[in-house]
Specification:
The complex is a heterodimer of chains A (about 110) and B (about 120). Chain A contains no helices and eleven strands. With about 110 residues, chain A is mainly β. In chain A, strands 2, 4, 5, 9, 10 and 11 form a six-stranded mixed β-sheet that branches. Chain A has a five-stranded antiparallel β-sheet with strand order 1-3-8-7-6, with no helix packed on it. Classes of the chains: A mainly beta (about 110), B mainly beta (about 120).
Chain lengths: ~110, ~120
């Protein structure tokens, strides 16, 4: 059973608009969450993270929102740029240090 | 920022041979490193946790005798694919955790290497 789910395999957004990537999790014991961006044949690049004690973390164009009661987090990218086109992975971590990844959402930002 | 390197970035080998992949944390020490595998168009799957000074912990379904892990130092972990077969062809990625965050709280994040593309003929 998937503990971290990204239900949208793909998302297409116009340049300059907001991209919203969603992620759901089932294990309430996760204590931090991360978003990674990945290009083909490259390792994931860390984007932004949030501790379970927070509900929002912002870094430049990227904002992550955490709704613990709904076990849901989202990544907002605004404004979206063509260079943001990649696969975005949501990941959740616990006390053991390993991460559980979602299956990813492919974001396409069109000029 | 934190950097994790992997070597080699790609390797092609014959079936039955062994391949060693190195993972290094370049500006921080990591007592734990993680090895992932990614099949085309699929998510990252954790294979094993590499522990400095002790045995690696393998995920269910991962053959420990086939995927040998050695955490030689606080900055180096190696994954050796022994007697490689074509079905072992994949993209292997390592990561190392490091504390991140601000003055009011901190948490672990993981920094990933660039990955190693293994093709077994």
């Amino acid at each position: 059973d998937q503990q971290v789910k990204q239900n949208s395999p793909s998302l297409s957004v116009q340049e300059g608009r907001i991209s919203i990537l969603n992620c759901d999790y089932t294990n309430s014991m996760f204590d931090y969450f991360l978003w990674y961006k990945k290009y083909p044949a490259e390792g994931p690049t860390f984007l932004i993270s949030i501790s379970s004690i927070k509900d929002k973390n912002e870094d430049g164009r990227f904002t992550v929102f955490l709704n613990k009661s709904a076990k849901h987090l989202s990544l907002h990218i605004v404004p979206s740029q063509p260079g943001d086109s990649a696969v975005y992975f949501c990941a959740a971590g616990g006390s053991q240090g390993n991460l559980i990844f979602g299956k990813g959402t492919k974001l396409s930002v069109k000029p | 920022g934190a950097v994790v390197s992997q070597h080699p970035s790609w390797v092609i080998c014959k079936s039955g041979t062994s391949v060693k992949i190195e993972c290094r944390s370049l500006d921080f020490q990591a007592t734990t490193m993680f090895w992932y595998r990614q099949f085309p168009k699929q998510s990252l799957m954790l294979m094993a946790t590499s522990n400095e000074g002790s045995k690696a912990t393998y995920e269910q379904g991962v053959e420990k005798d086939k995927f040998l892990i050695n955490h030689a130092s606080l900055t180096l972990s190696t994954l050796t694919v022994t007697s490689a077969h074509p079905e072992d062809s994949s993209f292997y990625i390592c990561s190392a955790p490091r504390l991140a965050g601000g003055p009011t709280h901190s948490h672990r994040t993981q920094y990933f290497g660039p990955g190693t593309r293994l093709t077994v003929l």
